[in-house]
Design goal:
By secondary structure, the protein is an alpha+beta fold. Among the domains are: 51 residues; 92 residues, no CATH class; 96 residues; 78 residues, GMP Synthetase, Chain A, domain 3 (2-Layer Sandwich). The strands form nine sheets. Strands 1, 2, 3, 4, 5, 6, 14, 15 and 16 form a nine-stranded antiparallel beta sheet that branches. It starts with 10 loop residues before the first helix and ends with a strand.
C-alpha cells in the first residue's frame, strides 16, 4: 500500500483518507468501519493526525515574521535583522522652575535624578522624574530655568560582571521601561569612586574595540536586556566590573494630559549638600504629551524589514519612511516622496509628511529635531524637508431604501447605518497617507447593516479646507490629487462663503469649464436677494480638472462664514474610489455626510408594479454654493428656511396665489426657488421621512456643509415657482 498523504486539516476528510487507506488492504475491503469497534481506532488516528498537522502548521507560521502571531516570536525574528521594537514612551513636558530659599553662598544647584514632582489627570495621580542630573545657577538665594521631565518612576538596577557565569545576562527586571531614559555607568569594582558612562548605539558603524557602548534588545514579557561589547566591537567588560543602570518605568499614553505638577524633587549645591529650606514651583509650558504604548506586533512586522532594507542610510523615499519613525517614535503615519515627482520637479530633495499620534501636525521644534537626527543617515546631495500634512475629506449623500415590514422605527435603522460607517471611518484603512476610500466596500457595508435594507444610492464628494490668511494679499493652491468630474459647464467646484476687500457682502467662487480642454477658470460671485447670480470677477483663478488642482489668484480675504478662517472647497471626483497621494491624509467625514431613509414600496408589497416608485438620482446636482446661502443683502442672522438642502438667510416673499414662501423680496414672473421649512423637504423627500434628515432641524449657519446632495429628480418636484 502506498503511503497516505494528508493535505487537509478537516477532521472528517482525514478520517475518510484513513478509511480509504485501510480498504486498499484486502482484509478490510468489506469492513463496515462505522459499525465496528475499529471506528474508535480510526477516530483516534484522525484526531492524532489533525492535532499534529495543526501544531506543525502553527510552528511553521511562527518561524516567519509575516505570519508569526506571538510577540516573543515576532520580536525574535525582528532581532535577527537588527530591529529593536520601540519601547513604551513616557509622556513628557517642559517646565520652568523657580526656586527661592537657597543658601545665600550657593552658586550652583543640581536636581538629582529621580522623582521631581507629581500631577493628576482625570483624578489619577502620576509621578514625574528626570533620568539624569540637571544643573543650574543660583544668585542671591534664588534660581530659575527650564528642564524636561518624564512621567514615570525612576528606578536603578545593579549587576556585577562574573566571568564564571558563561551566559550571564543583564536583564532589567521591570516592564514598561522607556528605553530612551536608560543611563548606563560602569565602575571597575565595588570600591571604585569613579564611573565611566556608556552610550547607546543602534548599529556598529564607527564602533572600535575601545568604544564604551551598549545595545539593547527586547526579551520575554516586554523586558529589556542590555548588551556590551566583545572586545572587537565595543569595549569588553572585565570580571568584577559593576554595572549601574537607571531608567524610568512609565505608564505610557495614560500619562498624557497632565497640565500641572507639584515639586517633590531633591536639590543639592556644589558641595553635594541638600538644600532643605527651599520653596520651589514648576510651571508647565504645555500639558504632558507624546506618551505611548510599546510598539505593537503589526507595526514591528511592517517596519522591521523596511528598516533593514534601508541599511541605516537614507537614500530613497522608502528609506526615510522607515528611518523617521525610529528617530521620532511618536509617528502614526508617514509619507515620503522625491522632489522629482513634483511639477515642476525639484531634484535632490525628499519631502516628508508625518502625522503624530497625539495631534495633527508636527511642531516646528519637532521638525528641527527630526531633521537634525536625519543628518546621521542622509547622503550628500539629498536634502530632506518636512512639510505639513493636508487633510482630504470624503463625504457621502446616502439614500437608504428599506422594507418597512421589518423596521419598527426608521430612525433606529439610520443610527445603525451611521454607527457602522463611523466604525469603518475610524479604521486604519482610511486614516493614513496613501489611504484609499473604496466605494464598493462602503455600499456593501451599508447593505449589510440590516436585512431590512433593500438597496442604497450613494454619491460622494471630496473636500479640502482652506485656511485663509486674513487681511493679507495671498495666492492659494489647493491640491486634491484626484481627477475632478465635469458634470456641467460650471459649478463643479463649490465653496463656502467668505468676504474680500473691495466687495460688500458674502462672496463665493466656482468654476467655468473651458470647452475642449481639461482646464477651467474660477469666477467670484454673489447671490442677490432674488437668488440671481452676480459675477464679481471672472478671473479669480484656475482649475485643472485632470490634476485635481485649484489655484486662487492674489486676493485679500477679510473674513469667512465658517469659524477659524476656514473656507471649505468641494468637488466631485471622477472615480468613486478616492486615493490620498503624497502629503494628503485621507479621512472619511461621517459627521458632514447626509443619510436619508426611504421606504421601498416594491419590497413592502404596497406598489409591486413600481408605478409610484421614484428612484433617487445617482448623480449629484444641487446648489451653486457649499453650505449656507447668504445673499449679498442678507445680514446672515436669521434662518428663513432651506433651498435645495441649504440654509437660506436672504429676503423672501409669499406667492400671491399658492402662499408658498419664495426667495426674493418681491414676486417676479421668472422661475425662482421655493423656501421649505426643513432641509429634507427642500430635497424633495416625503414629509413623513423628513424628520429622519440628519440636519433638518439645524439652525447654525456652519452646520450644513453638504450643499451638493440635491438630485435632479428631487429638485424638480416643487423646487421652483413662478
Amino acid at each position: 500500500m502506498a503511503l497516505q498523504q494528508f493535505t487537509n486539516l478537516n477532521f472528517e476528510d482525514i478520517k475518510t483518507s484513513i478509511k480509504d487507506y485501510l480498504r486498499q488492504n484486502s482484509n478490510f475491503s468489506d469492513m463496515d468501519f462505522e459499525g465496528s469497534n475499529l471506528s474508535v481506532i480510526v477516530n483516534l488516528l484522525a484526531y492524532n493526525s489533525y492535532t499534529t498537522a495543526y501544531n506543525t502548521n502553527a510552528v511553521v507560521n511562527e518561524t516567519f515574521i509575516d505570519s508569526a502571531t506571538l510577540r516573543e516570536n515576532v520580536v525574535s525574528l525582528a532581532r535577527n535583522i537588527g530591529y529593536v521594537p520601540r519601547s513604551k514612551r513616557a509622556a513628557r513636558m517642559i517646565v520652568d522652575y523657580d526656586i527661592t530659599g537657597i543658601t545665600s553662598t550657593t552658586e550652583t544647584i543640581t536636581f538629582e535624578p529621580g522623582l521631581i514632582g507629581n500631577g493628576t489627570v482625570s483624578n489619577v495621580n502620576f509621578l514625574f522624574s528626570i533620568p539624569e542630573k540637571i544643573t543650574g545657577s543660583a544668585i542671591n538665594g534664588a534660581a530659575s530655568g527650564t528642564m524636561e521631565v518624564f512621567q514615570g518612576q525612576y528606578l536603578e538596577s545593579k549587576f556585577v560582571v562574573n566571568d564564571s557565569l558563561p551566559n550571564q545576562r543583564y536583564i532589567l527586571p521591570n516592564n514598561g521601561v522607556d528605553t530612551s531614559t536608560i543611563r548606563v555607568n560602569v565602575k571597575e569594582n565595588n570600591s571604585s569612586t569613579t564611573t565611566t558612562e556608556y552610550k547607546l548605539v543602534d548599529n556598529i558603524i564607527g564602533v572600535t574595540s575601545t568604544s564604551n557602548i551598549y545595545l539593547i534588545q527586547e526579551t520575554t514579557d516586554e523586558k529589556y536586556e542590555v548588551l556590551f561589547g566583545d572586545g572587537i566591537f565595543g569595549h569588553k567588560l572585565s570580571n568584577g566590573n559593576v554595572i549601574e543602570i537607571s531608567y524610568i518605568k512609565t505608564e505610557g499614553k495614560e500619562g498624557n494630559g497632565v497640565a500641572r505638577i507639584l515639586f517633590a524633587g531633591t536639590v543639592t549645591n556644589e558641595n553635594l549638600a541638600s538644600e532643605t529650606t527651599i520653596s520651589a514651583s514648576l510651571n508647565t509650558q504645555f500639558p504632558s504629551q507624546n506618551g505611548d504604548d510599546i510598539e505593537d506586533v503589526r507595526s514591528v512586522r511592517y517596519y522591521a524589514p523596511r528598516l533593514y532594507s534601508s541599511q541605516h542610510r537614507a537614500v530613497t523615499a522608502s528609506d526615510y519612511e522607515a528611518i523617521v519613525p525610529s528617530v521620532y517614535p511618536n509617528i502614526e503615519s508617514i509619507s515620503a516622496f522625491g522632489g522629482e515627482e513634483l511639477n515642476p520637479p525639484k531634484y535632490g530633495r525628499v519631502y516628508i509628511a508625518a502625522k503624530p499620534k497625539n495631534g495633527s501636525f508636527l511642531s516646528e521644534f519637532t521638525k528641527k529635531q527630526i531633521l537634525s537626527s536625519l543628518k546621521n543617515y542622509s547622503v550628500a546631495g539629498i536634502v530632506p524637508e518636512i512639510i505639513d500634512l493636508k487633510f482630504l475629506y470624503v463625504e457621502l449623500d446616502t439614500y437608504v431604501y428599506y422594507n418597512s415590514n421589518f423596521v419598527g422605527d426608521p430612525e433606529n435603522l439610520r443610527s445603525d447605518v451611521i454607527t457602522a460607517l463611523s466604525a469603518f471611518a475610524s479604521g486604519t484603512e482610511l486614516n493614513k497617507f496613501g489611504g484609499r476610500f473604496k466605494y464598493s466596500k462602503v455600499l456593501s457595508l451599508i447593505d449589510r447593516v440590516s436585512d431590512s435594507i433593500t438597496s442604497n444610492i450613494t454619491t460622494i464628494r471630496i473636500r479640502r479646507n482652506l485656511v485663509a490668511q486674513l487681511n493679507v494679499f495671498s495666492q492659494y493652491e489647493i491640491c486634491f490629487d484626484n481627477t475632478f468630474h465635469i458634470n456641467q459647464s460650471s459649478y463643479n467646484i463649490k465653496s463656502t462663503g467668505f468676504n474680500i476687500s473691495g466687495a460688500s457682502g458674502t462672496v463665493y467662487f466656482s468654476d467655468q469649464h473651458i470647452v475642449g480642454t481639461d482646464k477651467g477658470s474660477l469666477f467670484l460671485f454673489q447671490i442677490d436677494g432674488d437668488s440671481t447670480v452676480k459675477i464679481i470677477s471672472s478671473t479669480f483663478g484656475s482649475v485643472d480638472y485632470k490634476k485635481g488642482e485649484v489655484i486662487i489668484d492674489t486676493v485679500n480675504i477679510t473674513g469667512t462664514v465658517l469659524p477659524d478662517n476656514i473656507i471649505e472647497i468641494q468637488a466631485i471626483p471622477q472615480s468613486n474610489d478616492v486615493l490620498a497621494r503624497k502629503e494628503l491624509y485621507l479621512q472619511f467625514d461621517v459627521a458632514n455626510s447626509n443619510f436619508f431613509m426611504r421606504e421601498d414600496p416594491i419590497s413592502t408589497g404596497a406598489n409591486t408594479s413600481g408605478t409610484r416608485y421614484d428612484p433617487q438620482s445617482s448623480y449629484s446636482n444641487g446648489s451653486k454654493v457649499r453650505g449656507a446661502i447668504i445673499t449679498s443683502t442678507s445680514t446672515g442672522s436669521t434662518l428663513v428656511g432651506y433651498v435645495n438642502g441649504n440654509p437660506y438667510y436672504g429676503p423672501f416673499h409669499f406667492h400671491p396665489n399658492t402662499g408658498k414662501k419664495m426667495v426674493g423680496a418681491f414676486h417676479v414672473s421668472t422661475p425662482h426657488d421655493v423656501i421649505y421649512a426643513t432641509k429634507a423637504e427642500s430635497l424633495g423627500i416625503a414629509v413623513e421621512t423628513a424628520a429622519i434628515d440628519s440636519s433638518s432641524t439645524s439652525t447654525s449657519m456652519t452646520s450644513t456643509s453638504t450643499s451638493s446632495s440635491s438630485s435632479s429628480s428631487s429638485s424638480s418636484s416643487s423646487g421652483y415657482g413662478y
